[in-house]
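Propose amino acids for all 367 sites.
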């Protein structure tokens, strides 16, 4: 083969690789129901975006995030803005049960949807047309039922560890702070809480109230309840409400210990530290992009396109410190999220333990 022919072959190879890479790359819009910065409902949704940004770079996905500021009415109005981005997929969260409407609106633009953290239920699913069902490509949700159950059981264990034997036979009085009335995560966590409550005869729920995921609303409600009710444990559906509860307890100068726990692994408020948190599901935004990459490559079979992941772990577990430290230090670029793709040479199951295995401190930080 002469030099001209060899150069021509090499040029064709490079052109093929370049066109393959461009064809393989696609755009995703994440309709984030939260805020772009920490606020009264915590920093959970900000952190979800951080995980997705890091995963998008590993997977060669163009990611655009649009925020709805915890306003489900605003969320519905953002569809035209999203359609103008011309994404191949939109990642949605079923905040306050509005995903059905958004899926239908996106389908008019022939844009596919993927559900993250809160999916749609069977009742809503049957209301989708054949086209709308085809454009709903998949979902990944954490096992929120188990989180609600584990949190109450964990708080009861902590309470009993610090009480005298004579006290252990007394009723333990519980206050529950729920997220909202309609979001699937809130409802599933409440169900887990209720089942754990029924399984233990020594527990008494003195109140269960919705605080809309808010630190301020939780503070106000707990302040009022403590004025007339004795509480031993406060179970909160997220950490922001747990922080508000702790603030109320400190302000009330209640010298009898009240054990407080939440969900999200936002448990880093030095002013209002709580006793327990279950989290890890903040990383599932990255998992959603891994799944979309595999769906786009037709390597993820239909039966595995809707996944419920039991990812929640305790803040008392060995995994907690490293995971939250890497997040707070913005080191998510050190994770290699491509290792969780089916196309990886040795694909890994997405879990907190396996995230630790794909963390490479020497890797250049991509964030």
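Proposal:
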């Amino acid at each position: 083969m002469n030099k001209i022919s060899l150069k021509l072959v090499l040029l064709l190879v490079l052109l093929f690789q370049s066109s393959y890479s461009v064809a393989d790359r696609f755009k995703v819009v994440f309709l984030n129901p939260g805020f772009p910065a920490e606020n009264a409902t915590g920093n959970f949704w900000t952190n979800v975006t951080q995980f997705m940004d890091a995963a998008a770079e590993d997977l060669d996905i163009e990611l655009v995030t649009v925020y709805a500021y915890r306003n489900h009415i605003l969320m519905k109005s953002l569809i035209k803005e999203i359609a103008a981005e011309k994404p191949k997929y939109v990642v949605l969260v079923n905040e306050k049960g509005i995903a059905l409407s958004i899926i239908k609106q996106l389908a008019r633009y022939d844009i596919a949807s993927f559900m993250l953290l809160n999916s749609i239920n069977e009742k809503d699913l049957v209301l989708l047309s054949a086209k709308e069902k085809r454009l709903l490509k998949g979902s990944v949700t954490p096992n929120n039922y188990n989180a609600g159950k584990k949190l109450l059981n964990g708080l009861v264990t902590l309470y009993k560890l610090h009480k005298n034997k004579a006290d252990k036979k007394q009723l333990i009085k519980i206050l529950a702070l729920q997220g909202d009335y309609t979001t699937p995560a809130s409802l599933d966590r409440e169900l887990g809480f209720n089942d754990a409550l029924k399984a233990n005869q020594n527990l008494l729920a003195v109140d269960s109230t919705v605080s809309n995921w808010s630190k301020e609303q939780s503070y106000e409600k707990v302040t009022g309840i403590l004025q007339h009710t004795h509480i031993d444990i406060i179970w909160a559906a997220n950490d922001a409400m747990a922080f508000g509860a702790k603030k109320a307890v400190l302000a009330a100068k209640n010298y009898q210990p009240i054990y407080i726990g939440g969900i999200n692994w936002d448990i880093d408020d030095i002013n209002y530290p709580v006793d327990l948190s279950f989290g890890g599901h903040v990383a599932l935004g990255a998992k959603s992009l891994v799944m979309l990459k595999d769906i786009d490559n037709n390597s993820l079979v239909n039966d595995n396109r809707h996944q419920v992941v039991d990812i929640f772990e305790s803040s008392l577990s060995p995994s907690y410190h490293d995971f939250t430290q890497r997040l707070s230090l913005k080191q998510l670029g050190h994770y290699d999220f491509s290792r969780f793709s089916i196309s990886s040479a040795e694909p890994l199951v997405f879990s907190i333990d396996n995230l630790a295995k794909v963390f490479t401190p020497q890797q250049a930080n991509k964030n």
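The chain is about 45% helix and 15% strand. The longest helix spans residues 3-24.
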